[in-house]
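Build the 3D complex.
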Amino acid sequence: MKRIAVFTSGGDAPGMNAHIRAVERTGEKRGLEVIGIIGGYSGMMLGHFEVLDRIRTANIIDRGGTILKTSRCPEFEEVEGRIKAAEELRKHGIDGVVACGGDGTFHGAHYLWQEHGIPIVGTPGTIDNDLSGTDYTIGYDTAINTAAQAIDKIRDTADSHGRLFFIEVMGRHAGFIAMDVGIACGAEYVAVPETLTDIDEMYQRILAQGLDKRTVVIVGEGDELGGALGISKKLEERYGISSKISILGHIQRGGSPTVRDRVLASRLGAAAVDALLEGRSDVMVGEMSGQITSVPLEQTWEERKLVPPYLTELAYLLV
Ligand code: ADP
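Done.
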């Protein structure tokens, strides 16, 4: 193996730059040339490649976003799109690829390996923390800290006015962000996609808190009742209670990565390069209980990673 490539794909996550830096530095130390693919699978299909070196990857460890950009690329979901991408990789003499992204990115990586035999190792880059095979994903720690800071501020105003607030955080399929920030910010109720949200029970909690008191409900965006907006409407219809809604949105994706995210991103970058050199492919490298792990890409989406019940119990115990 002489030349490897790295790319970021799907939803961006803070720490992706630290990860790119780690892949480049590790590759260089192991005597490899490292190429950056610009713009995820779209860039792979178009041959948008650039040589990475120490200078290009200097001063990026603390930056949010991704210097390699990212994209959603429906063409790559088709066989023809992947043929184009494989041709470009071969044309540029790329012997192995590090793919940083979420489960969509891993589906694509899996097919690229199966259909074209291009060695590819995935690394978990998503703020949602919803990938099985790793305790945490790159970007998650930054996202929860950003969300917690925003919620603390909303709590101040909710407290001053004695208002009920629904604060929606990201997480289409997983409630990790909601549950962690719910506990960290002392929320009165946490609604997550994994469990059915009981409006009547929520109402009882709000009553117990006092209708004229501050009540903060954290809602994961994928909650089955339609996120913060859906829940607030249902509560108003059923019990005539009005509330304020705040959707934190993309603020959770940006910003300088926390130390934890930088270290995780760096460690997994080095581990991914070494996995390629050891001849592994079609796997995601992650970290569990402090150890580097390597699991088949398919496992990362087939085995659903759920919010551990002890966190749910803790959130309710501490209300
Ligand atoms: P994430 O990687 O963060 O989950 P997406 O779900 O948007 O983000 O996936 C990123 C990209 O991965 C998609 O734009 C597409 O190019 C590719 N992809 C997603 N699903 C598949 C699939 N089933 N087959 C092939 N490629 C896929």
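The chain has two domains: 3-139+257-302, 141-253.
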